[in-house]
Amino acid sequence: MSSPSTEREEMQPVDILIDQGAISARIDELGRQITADYADQAPVVVGVLKGCIVFLADLIRAIKLPLELEFITAASYRHGDTRETEIILGGPVAIPLKDRHVLLIEGVVDSGRTVSRILDHVRLMEPASVEVVTMIDKPASHRTEIDVKYKGFTIGNEFVIGYGLDNTQQYRNLPFVGRVIDR
Ligand code: IMP
Ligand code: MG
């Protein structure tokens, strides 16, 4: 048999920043808070792919309300070496958001540009309300005025991976939030 054309990429060693127990406990708290804040409502949860997926899967099970689930994709592209990034949205939202209470679920808010772009898009659909929920917030990195109502954890300006978050599409399946250690 011929050898595979691509070598399997080795993962770098990682450091645990937020362990599974801490994430789970925090998600339970967020779930209780959202359940109380949206009592008697049936919110539409809109996940921002792909970073949201692990956090979202846990969070929706901690929200004790009828809810509907929708996804949107967001990808940012940097133009050459300028600081300009273009954010392309995809995944048409099939559930009408007009007059609905929308919860936008993110894995991480860094500069805030992605969430801000999605908020503009969602607001055009005239929802009754829209709030942002993120597993990780990096307030010191925000470059735009955004109100993140629900956040799991606040960290400094550092790059983290795991629990849905990637570095070049790897590490999303780690059951904790960590950092890659340089060798
Ligand atoms: P923004 O700067 O808030 O628009 O974030 C853009 C995107 O960068 C996020 O949705 C993530 O995909 C990615 N990103 C930002 N910070 C991190 C991180 O610490 N780990 C993994 N991905 C990140
Ligand atoms: Mg990424």
Commentary on this structure:
This protein is α/β, with parallel strands linked by helices. It has a single domain, classed as 3-Layer(aba) Sandwich (Rossmann fold), CATH 3.40.50.2020. 21% of the residues lie in helices and 30% in strands. The chain contains 3 helices and 8 strands. The protein has helices spanning 20-37, 53-62, 113-123; strands spanning 14-18, 44-49, 68-78, 85-90, 101-109, 129-137, 150-154, 177-180. The protein has a 6-stranded mixed beta sheet with strand order 4-3-2-5-6-7, with helices on both faces. Strands 1-8 form a two-stranded antiparallel ribbon. The longest helix has 18 residues, at 20-37. Mean pLDDT is 92; it is low at 1-6. Bound molecules: inosinic acid and magnesium ion.
